[in-house]
Amino acid sequence: MRRRFDVLIVGMGPAGIGAACAAAESGLEVGIVDDNPHEGGQIWRGEAAKPSSKLAAMWIARFRAARVETLSETRVVDAPGPGMLLAECGDAPLELQYGKLILATGARERFLPFPGWTLPNVMGAGGLQALVKGGVPIDGKRVVVAGSGPLLLAVAAYLQERGATVALIAEQAGWARLARFGLGIAREPAKIYQGLSLKFALRRVPYLTGCWPAQALGENRLAEVVLKTTTNTWREPCDYLACGFGLVPNIELPVLLGCTIRNGFVAVNEWQETSLSGVYCAGEPNGIGGVELALIEGKIAGFATAGLENQARRQFAARARALWFRNGLDKAFALRDELRAIATPDTIVCRCEDVPLERMRAHTAWRQAKLQTRCGMGPCQGRICGPAAEFLLGWKQESVRPPIFPVRLDHFTR
Amino acid sequence: MSEMVGVKVNGVPVRVPARATVAAAIFMLGEVAFRCSVGGEPRGPLCGMGICFECRVTIDGCPHVRSCQILCRPGMEIETGRS
Hints:
The complex is a heterodimer of chains A (414) and B (83). Chain A has 14 helices and 21 strands.
């Protein structure tokens, strides 16, 4: 099948939704693709069925009212030529042609390997939340939430509301750094409100700063997690460990297209246009900045594709404020060096190919390790172990090759 | 009361809400080992959002399907524990 749009958007989270509304309301023919069954991306997963955020409800209603063709359960696998993407939708290949392209591919969690992290029921923080939103029962379960970033609080509050007992939240960042960030945040009233309401919901849950998981224990499934601070080590029994160390941008498609990457993020100009003319990028791939920034950047990109520069320009001040918040996040939740030492030589780093740290360490760079050990060559294509190797070993993943997502051979080679 | 859907996990029938994922159906039966790794370890979902492929299972005979991204449809036959 073949489809053509004035504007094609990849990713149906806040950035993609903001972009789609702006472009479609300006009269353009807009198509939007996403791997997930419903709109909302990760942050607004499940909001369409069970709204909990006014902002999400407002934008999803606006999105549904806009003339946008949505292609759900659709994965982009290649960019075979200019103005064209190859995708797979369920059981069929799909050729998508576009005049302009907006990349709103979002982010995933960063996972750091530690002994036992491959045990069933050790999951991402956002990961467990997403699973529970998909119907995984959590009522009465005991959960340790660990890792880093503001997401931990949101996840803990959500799980608790769904009946889980959150034993504690272990934030790796130290108190001093967080306090500095806490003072700085006074410039953003909405963030304070969010912070306070989460804090109230979690008032009976210990929030331990400078604390991280060192080991997961259990026979074929998680039973206990070993937690560490600079002075203490102890065991915490739990059913689930929800653990993520911040977010990593999904830049595989921008890299494949040839967009310039700067410090690990997609470089854009004031119109959210990448180094490629007619290819725009909005949200987390430009820098981890959260939902408000993603919406603003999406709107700017959407207006820019329609040539409505004045409309786009009206968003610039809001974007500048949100960018300031993004920079604060980076500093407050910087990962501590001790986290590099929690993986032991036999800890698996690449979960697809079961490659332990010691086998990877025998090499000097990602590409060499990949060729010799198969790390990063399984179905996730290094999306999990790549960022871990970057943190642990300082390696960069240099290139991306199609297909950027596992695809049926006959869909790819037609 | 929302609509329910009947599926089978390793031959065992289970009823789940209409918008539940295949991963949810598997957890509802108490199963946590979704697949078996290259080195023979049991593995379950990690990322919950279709990135890591740790939750892959066999659905209606089709292997390597990500259970966290697929919604249950009536009569689905789900099989866990393969590679």
